[in-house]
Amino acid sequence: PGSSDVNGEFLGHTPSLGCCGLVEKDCNVIVTKSKGTGKCQYTIQLSKLTQNDENIYVGVHTKLAENIVESAFKQNCISVLKNSTNIKREVKFLNSRFDFTGETEDGEKFILEVKSVPLAKDGVAYFPDGYRKKKGAVVSERALKHINELAEIKKTQGIRTFMCYVVQRNDVHSFKIADSDPIYKEAVNKAIEDGVEIIVLQIGWNGHGEGHLITDKLTLID
Fold first, then answer.
1. Which of 2, 73, 208, 215 is buried most, with the most CB atoms less than 10 Å from its CB?
2. What does pTM read for this prediction?
3. For residue 37, what pLDDT is reported?
């Protein structure tokens, strides 16, 4: 996204709220200048962590993940969807608007939804996590709706469907669906059984706001 050096105190918009501790008081962040005339002059894009004297930059703006996938399509970096054509963004199916549709090199139509993954523990990235209105509730009703509808589309219409998780940090070796949200985890496992395909991209960021693809096949563990 590029970056800005900011001195002084300014309001910074963070679409991901506190991002489970990555964007809170005393955190170091990388920002870009905001567009428009809102109250916030800057938008928070990355969070800077220091681990074992090494700086780790984590993408915390959820829209970054969608832009990453769009770039990956343009640069033909998604192995399972090599040479895809007719890529479109924000297309409605059933009761959801999915991030991407397109056609494989064999002319097969597909739908792909993107989820941003900034969180990790002990080298394992995980999704989802965040504020819940009540104990035991699903973390994201929207994420649950998307995975269920991808499964429904695959079953009823035979269209190839993908859930693409974009891990926005370089300090992990695998990815999992969080055990803390058993409702969502069960839905993902059921969707995989129904034919929904999972892609896990891993992106590394640097202090200049530059991202690079590490792998499009980060290991998915249970």
1. 73
2. 0.89
3. 62
